[in-house]
Amino acid sequence: MTKAGLKKTILLVLLAPLILGSMLAVGCLQTRVLETVSPQEAFDLIQENQDSPDFVILDVRRAGEYAQGHIEAAISMDFYSPTFRDELDALDKEKTYLIYCRSGNRSGQALGIMDELGFLEIYDLSGGISAWQDAGLPTVG
């Protein structure tokens, strides 16, 4: 082997893991969705996913607020609980989540936490349950 050929071979051996690693990383990237939606868009999202086990509605208000009325099938998870972040972290990050609170403040903060934790698809109800009810959309409880 010539000196030039040897240099090319060594260079290829040294660069191969970097090239392969880059190709794998690009292939593993997943599209993330972090979106604020109107009450009507949230309602449509719920209708489209009503039979999907991979769609979860999270109500991040306190238990008393939840008991006064919530979106059907919503799971209560108190934003102010000291274990809130850990409870979120235990959820399946590959599912699709619609989150809401009373006005959009807590759910907006929860969206940020879920983003940090690596959730892939999150929709935040703009204006919270207040906007939902103002739009005449149904609640239970």
Give structural notes.
The chain is of the alpha/beta class. It has two domains: 1-30; 31-134, Rhodanese-like domain (Oxidized Rhodanese, domain 1). The chain is built from six helices and five strands. It has a five-stranded parallel sheet, with helices on both faces. Helix 3 links the parallel strand 2 (55-59) and strand 3 (75-76). The chain starts with a helix and ends in a 7-residue tail after the last helix.
Provide tags for this entry.
alpha/beta, elongated, 5 strands, 2 domains, 5-stranded parallel sheet, 141 residues, Oxidized Rhodanese, domain 1, 16% strand
Sequence stretches where pLDDT stays below 50 over 5 or more residues = none
Helix content: 40-55%
Q: Taking Cα atoms only, what radius of gyration do you get, to the nearest Å?
A: 22 Å
CATH fold-level label of the largest domain? Oxidized Rhodanese, domain 1
CATH superfamily of the largest domain: Rhodanese-like domain
Number of domain units: 2
> What is the annotated CATH architecture of the largest domain?
3-Layer(aba) Sandwich
**Terminal residue distance:** 80 Å
Number of extended strands: 5
What sequence of helices (H) and strands (E) makes up the elements? HEHEHEHEHEH
User: What's the CATH C level of the largest domain?
Assistant: Alpha Beta
Q: Classify the secondary structure makeup into a structural class.
A: alpha/beta
